[in-house]
Design a protein that fits this description.
By secondary structure, the protein is mainly alpha-helical. The chain is built from nine helices and no strands. 23% of the residues are buried.
Length: 192
C-alpha cells in the first residue's frame, strides 16, 4: 500500500481482503500481478498507518492488540477509511470500544458517517457521557455569531451530523421534562 507521500507499507493482500469487501474486490480484479501496489492517497500517512495496523490486528497475522481506550482514540484517524472501504468489522470494533470508553472526538467521527435512521448503537452509558459533555459545554459562555446556528458554534455539538444533534438534544429535553414531571417544583401558596 502506498500513501500520498509515496511511503510504502508492506501489507499482505489477505489482511486487506479480510477487512473490506471494497478492497477485496479491487485486489481480486487485479490479481494477475505478482506484487500489487495499492495507492491510498486521500488521507494522511498517520491515518493510513493506523488503519493498516488495525486491519492487521484483526487477523491471525498480527500479535498487536488494542485496548478500548486506544481504539476510541483511533476512531478519529481511521473512520474516513473505515467508511470509504466499508469495513464493517472494524466499525463494530470501534463502536464497542466507544461504548466501553467514550470519547467525544471518537463519537463525533463515527456519528459523522452514520446515516439518519441508522440502528442505535450507543449504550446508555455512552449516550449519558455525550449528554453530560453537551450540557457542560452549553453552560460555558461562548461567543455567539448570529450568522451561524448555535449548535454549530458549540465545541461538542459542532461536527456532529444534524440528526445526531437533534437526537441528543431530544434526549436531554425528554430527560429533564420527565424529571420535572416526577418532582414538581414546591408550591409557595399559603392555605387558610
Amino acid at each position: 500500500v502506498c500513501s500520498s507521500d509515496l511511503r510504502e507499507f508492506a501489507v499482505p493482500a489477505l489482511v486487506l481482503q479480510a477487512c473490506s469487501p471494497v478492497l477485496r474486490e479491487i485486489i481480486d480484479s487485479t490479481r494477475a500481478a505478482e506484487e500489487l501496489v495499492l495507492t491510498i492517497d486521500d488521507c494522511g500517512v498517520g491515518a493510513l498507518e493506523a488503519f493498516l495496523d488495525l486491519a492487521a490486528a484483526q487477523t491471525h497475522l498480527s500479535t498487536r492488540s488494542y485496548d478500548a481506550a486506544e481504539l476510541s482514540g483511533l476512531a478519529v484517524r481511521v473512520m474516513p477509511l473505515v467508511h470509504k472501504y466499508d469495513c464493517g468489522g472494524m466499525l463494530r470494533l470501534l463502536k464497542m470500544a466507544l461504548n466501553a470508553t467514550p470519547d467525544v472526538e471518537g463519537l463525533r467521527a463515527v456519528l459523522k458517517y452514520e446515516g439518519e435512521g441508522a440502528a442505535p448503537w450507543m449504550s446508555e452509558h455512552t449516550a449519558a457521557y455525550l449528554e453530560e459533555k453537551i450540557i457542560e459545554s452549553l453552560k460555558r459562555p461562548q461567543w455567539v455569531d448570529a450568522t451561524r446556528p448555535i449548535w454549530a458554534q458549540n465545541e461538542v455539538l459542532s461536527g456532529l451530523p444534524l440528526h445526531a444533534v437533534a437526537d441528543q438534544l431530544m434526549r436531554i429535553t425528554l430527560k429533564h421534562v420527565s424529571r420535572e414531571m416526577r418532582c414538581p417544583a414546591p408550591s409557595h401558596r399559603k392555605f387558610g
